[in-house]
Amino acid sequence: MRVERARYFLAALRTGSLRSAAAACGVSQPTIGQQLTVLEEELDVVLLTRSPGGVRATPAGEALIGPFTRLVAAEDAVREAALASNGTYQGRVSIGGGSVTVETIVAPVVGRLLADHPGLRFSVREGPSGDIESAVLSGDLDLGVVTTPDEPAPGGLVRRRLMTAPLGVHTLPDHPLARRREVAWADLDHWPIVTMRPGTVLHQRLRKHLPKAQVMVEAMSARTVQTMVTRGAGIGLLARFDTRQPAGDLTWLPLSDAEPVQVSLVQRTDSQPSRSSIVVRRLITARADELSGGGAGQ
Fold it and tell me: How far apart are CA 186 and CA 52, in angstroms?
């Protein structure tokens, strides 16, 4: 059995249609349909049900998702080891993300790239999620690591969920809210707030739930939000991407009625990623797994 057929099967489930899977894999739709038929004949099972609305896994297909995922990962690991051993990682990869995703996910990956793949060149751009997705769609960036907007992905982009992060607030230890174990949106209504700038997911969430909130600072980075809170500018609305103690010994309080923030890896659907991009993507996924305790993408 060719491993590529397992890739096509997983891509069909991930994207929901053979057309989208073909675009993501860089092959024609007839090719991917033919290869999936061959795979079903090889295994003597029906893996997918096809309909005008897309494709979905049969019970037999559901049972094989795990084995197919491990098979594809094993082949990728072998190829990566072979390429790394002969120094063929060249080329350039451009990555975009918001300030918090760059700090917590992309920066550690960059450090590992410098250590393990010195022949690979890369660039990193920070910006709001919408700007990063636009840059990926236009081809200016190869990959994006963004806090997922509430709106569906633009046509031509695919978002792969990496992890989720709880939404909450940072306060000074002597703030009246700091005595609580958690807060709700309504508890923030009369307090000055420090959060991220317009165009970010956090700013959108704040304006949705508290349209009349007294926003004192609209920051460019999560670090600035925390710094402003330590200076008494207000309470800081942020997603918590790791469990390290926040700067300045601030108190963290989860928002009990807030949906978690999702982090997604963004790529174009109509381009075949380079081998170097695949390496970077794998390291980004592994870093997200570390932050979420091994549960990224679940």
Answer: 44
* pTM confidence score: 0.65
pLDDT (mean) for 236-240: 93
Burial class (CB in 10 A: 0-12, 13-18, 19+), 77: exposed
Single-letter amino acid code for the residue at 153: A
Whole-number CA gyration radius for the chain: 22
pLDDT at 76: 75
Residue positions counted in the chain:
298
| Residue 226: count of CB within 10 angstroms of its CB | 19
> Which is more confidently placed, 229 or 19?
229
- For the segment 36-41, the average pLDDT, to the nearest whole number, is 94
Strands 143-147 and 48-51: unpaired
Query: Tokens at residue 23, please?
Result: 């675009």
